[in-house]
Amino acid sequence: MTSVQRIISPGATLGVLGGGQLGRMFAMAARRLGYRIHVYCPEGDTPAAPVADRIFHAPYEDLDAVRGFARTVDVVTFEFENVPSATSEACAESVPVRPEGRVLHLTQHRLREKGFLRDHGFPVTPFRAIGSLADLQTATRELGLPGVLKTASFGYDGKGQRTLRDAAEVPAAFDGLEGEEGIYEALVDFALEVSVVGARTLDGAFAAFPVFENAHAHHILDVTVCPARIPPDLEAGARALSRGILEALGVVGLLTVELFVTRDGRLVVNELAPRTHNSGHLTLDACVTCQFEQQVRAVCGLPLGSTDLRRPAAMANLLGDVWKDGGPRWDRALADPDVKLHLYGKAAPRPGRKMGHLTTTAPTAGEAIAAVRAARARL
Ligand code: AMP
User: In this structure, is residue 245 part of a structural domain?
Assistant: First the structure.
């Protein structure tokens, strides 16, 4: 196949598994480039629905519906990684799936993911598989306390995890797994959490965005700033890790690497997400190419766009909690002309639910953070 034939050109139809805000912003970027978008998602009334050309509403397990969806598109990608393997395999019968289902399969399971990283020489915290109380007792003895116990599958935003500080907590923590397979990780003494969104094409071209520095609140991403306030060697090291991991996995598409920067200046990989990432939302307003356009380019075989940061930027998430005292005062947040508002079109503002975000750009990272926090506080 020549490289010309590998290109999925504007006018083609892109399929997305998942209909949340990442799918919505992907669809908006794809439409701008002249593609059509079909979204497959089990839930009704999702953020991607109003901006998609067609919605397929059915469970991921309905493989006939999945095959029907795949037959209407030219390529399938993801905005949500906890899709069953059988779903991506059913799509792959008729069209390329990018990244491939095996990448999804690996990143859906913390033990598989950390095992792969460790075996390929990427830095991860020591960890053990937990299938019994005895396993957890041995793991806490060997790796020490404190440590973090997580479910091996389907965890995100800190769900299904607990920090253990004392051997007396071990039995209750094991019971908390409720029979699910677990992973026990040595606690990382980190100074900062950062992430790198990298993209790779079928031809092996690679581009990473500048490193994002992330602050969490209650296990949910709260504020991201770029450039990250880390030395140039760590910035380069994080981007090199991103490249190494995408190449080792043979990713075609986007993949986000979440990392810890330890107090003694090392990088430790925490998690992989085979898709765009909340920390990359500031690329919409601050980079030459946004992460969603980069996903379109990567999965369609187009040349990757420049990831250069035009201006330091910060992003603050807007959770449903912002609505608790009545409707937010958007006019107050936007009184600063450098503030950009992004809302995902979700009807019900439940506490903890990601409803939208604000981005600011400023002469320095510190000023961008101060401005975005101030804008959110004015809501
Ligand atoms: P995760 O669900 O693995 O992304 O973890 C959610 C958050 O918990 C991370 O962003 C960290 O703040 C914290 N965390 C997870 N694993 C560890 C670890 N091994 N050591 C220290 N903090 C951790």
Answer: yes
Q: What share of the chain is helix, strand, coil (3-state, %, to 5)?
A: 35, 30, 35
CA–centroid distance, 70 to ligand 1, in Å, is: 35
Q: How much distance in Å is there from the Cα of 39 to the middle of ligand 1?
A: 31
pLDDT digits (tens, 9 = 90+) for 312-344: 999 999 999 999 888 899 999 999 999 999 999
Atom 18 (ligand 1): residue with closest C-alpha?
Answer: 187
**Digit-coded pLDDT (tens) for 8-25:** 999 999 999 999 999 999
Q: Are 60 and 83 in contact (CB under 8 A)?
A: yes
Q: Is the dihedral of CA 82, 117, 148, 350 positive or negative?
A: negative
**Residue 18 and residue 158 share a domain:** no
Specify whether the CB–CB gap between 333 and 35 falls below 8 A.
Answer: no
- 270 in the same domain as 155: no
The pTM of the whole model exceeds 0.90: yes
Three-state secondary structure call for residue 41? strand
Q: Which residues line ligand 1 (CB under 6 A)?
A: 125, 148, 155, 158, 161, 185, 187-188, 193, 216, 219, 270-271
Provide the CA 202 distance to its chain's centre, in angstroms: 21
Q: What is the pLDDT of residue 2?
A: 45
Q: What is the dihedral sign for C-alpha 285, 286, 289, 293?
A: negative
* Ligand 1 mean position, distance from CA 270 (Å): 7
